[in-house]
Amino acid sequence: MSNAPLTCCLTFDFDAMSSWIGSVKSMNPSMISRGQFGAVAIPRLLHLLEQFQAKATFAIPGHTAYAYPNLVETIYARGHEIAHHGWVHENPATFDEAGERRILDKGLEAIARVIGVRPIGYRSPAWDLSPRSIDLLQEYGFVYESSCMGHDFYPYYLRSGDRWSLDSAYHFGTTVDLVEMPVTWMLDDFPPSEFVLGMNTGLQPPSQIEENWRADFDFARQRCPDGVFILTMHPQTIARGRYFLMLERLLTYFSGHPNVTFETMGSYAVNWRAANPCADWIAANPDLTGRDAIEP
Ligand SMILES: [Zn+2]
Predict the structure, then answer these.
(1) How many Å lie between the centroid of ligand 1 and the Cα of residue 125?
(2) How far apart are CA 247 and CA 2, in angstroms?
(3) Gyration radius from the chain CA atoms
(4) How many A from CA of 168 to the centre of ligand 1?
(5) First-to-last CA distance in the chain?
(6) Residue 2 scores a pLDDT above 70
(7) What is the dihedral of CA 127, 228, 230, 140, to 10 degrees?
(8) Domain positions in the chain
(9) CATH level 3 topology of 6-162+172-288
(10) Parallel/antiparallel/unpaired status of strands 6-13 and 121-122
(11) What distance in angstroms lies between residue 291's CA and the mean position of ligand 1's atoms?
């Protein structure tokens, strides 16, 4: 058992209509309106976060920033972090390099126009990355990325140039100075909650999700000193009745532990990077960097 600190990063992917347009390619106004529920959800969530004095990270596509500038301004004015989340929730791997640059630029332009800042964090829509994404994110100056799953409750540094095939050993690329704030589908509200015909069953009772998330939180708190527990949620999903009440209960549970604090991913990533310089981390983590991997 540990009484060491645990940081809790509450992250909200404010997709609004963009996920139904960019990921699902829907032409259905009913489906699009699910995203419009985001406009109802955001004030509700901001009020909840204020009650717990919790600063959160909102990953926002450029498309959402243009649709809801007032909400995005309010999120930012309340001290929450805004991270890049694509232009219209497209999969970067479906673009060539010029296209991938274009969607990064369009996302940055929209956020700059609405709140006048350049995000230091990037979370890919649906957590899809292209083989060149990590290089581009570094070139664009991002401090952290949050779409990969190579650790559970600690950040790590990403690599550039990994290669794989069916008939050769895994090639580990070069570890680069880009912090990964790791995610997992197990700590995401979308798969267990959101029903999408033919795509996602969702609709799990909140008691079940709550039990799962609490168990992971307890593991992180007890076994991962100074770690980070990252929850990924979608305003249009988590702010509906039963799931909103679940989140309220979970925040009460999390905040009931004296060594648990809420922090934005950006703030955590900056401090972690300062405390764990890339070169030192590489030297201390041969298996996470693939240093000793054999390539016959
Ligand atoms: Zn998203």
Answers:
(1) 5
(2) 24
(3) 19
(4) 34
(5) 43
(6) no
(7) -40
(8) 6-162+172-288
(9) TIM Barrel (3.20.20)
(10) unpaired
(11) 33
